[in-house]
Amino acid sequence: MTHTTIEEPVLLLSDTDADREAPTEVEPDSPPRPRRKRAGSDQFGQKQRKAREGALQVLFEVDLVGHDVEDVRTRQFDQMLLADGFRDYAERLVDGVLTHRDDVDALIAATAPAWPIAQLPRVDLNILRLALCELLYNTDVPVGAVINEAVELAKRYGSENSGKFINGTLGTVASRIMAGALTRGAG
User: What is the rounded distance in angstroms from the CA atom of residue 62 to the CA atom of residue 125?
Assistant: First the structure.
């Protein structure tokens, strides 16, 4: 067997958009590593991701256009054909953001002071609202999973730098949770 010498690191890309993640650098002479199973890569995780996408679409439309939340929710979730348990999850996410919106927006403003709420892209703002509600008010989902899912939403729906911004902002909030400055489940 002949080995080829490669001067630059090789980048491995995922095969599908549904499993999209950042490229991974591999040392040229290192043996291939088995792919680790990512959080959320199973069927349950995919349906939960779909519920988050549905919640994001509802929040975005309501925030941007001002349509009635119940009309938007019914239309979006019917179009997505969410299974009952995941439809309930998506509805809880939307309700959580609507209930805690002022507190979450204040946290965003405090965590990312260089980006006033009014100047944030609506997609990024609603991804942050969604993720922060999951972080602070839904302790069923691990902190890392919430951040990963939010970054994936940002990569899919946001701008080129949205993922980095979302990751940095949520990472700061997660650090405050771990330090005890913020409490999960306080709502």
Answer: 13
Note whether 135 and 143 are within 8 A (CB): yes
pTM of the model: 0.74
Domains in the chain: boundaries: 43-178
pLDDT digits 0-9 by tens, 11-43: 222 333 333 333 333 344 444 444 444 444 465
Could you tell me if 90 and 121 are in contact, meaning their C-beta atoms sit under 8 angstroms apart? no
Cβ-contact 85, 152 below 8 angstroms = no
d(CA 105, CA 6): 48
Q: Which amino acid is at 6?
A: I
How far apart, in Å, are the Cα atoms of 134 and each of 21, 23, 120? 21, 27, 20
Q: Is-contact 166 128, C-beta < 8 A?
A: yes
Q: Which 3 state secondary structure label does DSSP give 116? A: coil
CATH numeric code, 43-178: 1.10.940.10
